[in-house]
Backbone:
């Protein structure tokens, strides 16, 4: 109860900022998610406890900013080259035993800002794609919690996350997919056939978001850390809040990119 008020205030502020920036779009949106991704880089490099934490963060930050700028200009080939160079420098700075961990943190953070950039700046459906993902991921997260509490049953992966259950997982992804489908149908007036496919897309994105949650839990467990940081009062760190969204958004952007190209990734995600 002592943490309830700061947790509630933080949640309201985060939701308001996320919705406000996605509706505004443009550079405001990109800067918001770049800041979140920079926080992820800082938390990850701190979490792995490798040498030269400050130089690693600075190198990661520069590489992340350059990658974001190039992705904004749809110069994805140069963005990938920049990312590879940044990962190489991070691996060199981290030293033996932590090289792969250090480089992975930059890839993880870049997946967030690059994927949201590609989706939101898509020629059409950019706003709808991010709102759809918000509904799916937030709906999955909330309903998985309550579904698991009310129904209980076998654990999903007890060694990594003792509280997660199969019932919560299934309730969560079903509700998240439903919320995302209803929201998109309301905004776009999608036909029944399209809505059915969107529901399936929502199920997959919701399942992947739960996988992202488990991934982050396994990383923290590996390094013996409870929270990635204390940057967000009552919620831990940005990695703790964005783990599911990073995975879901990366998958959504990849699907959209493969179907419709970088300039129309949101169309490839939502129009079937």
Residues:
């Amino acid at each position: 109860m002592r943490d309830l008020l700061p947790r509630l205030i933080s949640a309201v502020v985060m939701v308001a900022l996320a919705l406000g920036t996605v509706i505004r779009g443009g550079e405001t949106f990109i800067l918001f998610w770049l800041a979140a991704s920079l926080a992820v880089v800082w938390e990850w490099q701190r979490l792995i406890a490798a040498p030269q934490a400050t130089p690693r963060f600075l190198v990661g930050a520069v590489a992340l900013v350059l990658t974001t700028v190039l992705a904004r200009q749809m110069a994805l080939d140069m963005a990938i080259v920049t990312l590879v160079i940044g990962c190489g420098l991070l691996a060199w700075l981290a030293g033996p035993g932590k090289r792969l961990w250090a480089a992975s943190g930059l890839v993880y953070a870049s997946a967030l800002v690059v994927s949201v950039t590609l989706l939101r700046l898509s020629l059409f459906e950019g706003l709808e794609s991010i709102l759809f993902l918000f509904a799916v991921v937030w709906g999955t997260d909330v309903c998985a919690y309550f579904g698991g509490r009310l129904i209980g049953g076998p654990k999903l992966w007890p060694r990594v996350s003792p509280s997660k259950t199969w019932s919560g997982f299934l309730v969560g992804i079903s509700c998240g997919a439903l919320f995302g489908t209803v929201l998109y149908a309301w905004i776009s007036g999608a036909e029944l056939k399209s809505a059915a496919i969107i529901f399936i897309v929502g199920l997959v994105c919701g399942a992947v978001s739960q996988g992202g949650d488990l991934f982050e839990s396994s990383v923290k467990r590996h390094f013996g850390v409870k929270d990635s940081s204390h940057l967000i009062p009552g919620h831990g760190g940005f990695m703790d809040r964005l783990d599911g969204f990073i995975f879901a958004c990366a998958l959504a952007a990849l699907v959209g990119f493969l179907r419709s190209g970088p300039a129309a990734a949101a169309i490839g995600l939502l129009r079937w």
Q: What stands out?
A: The chain has one domain: 4-270. The first helix runs from residue 4 to 24.
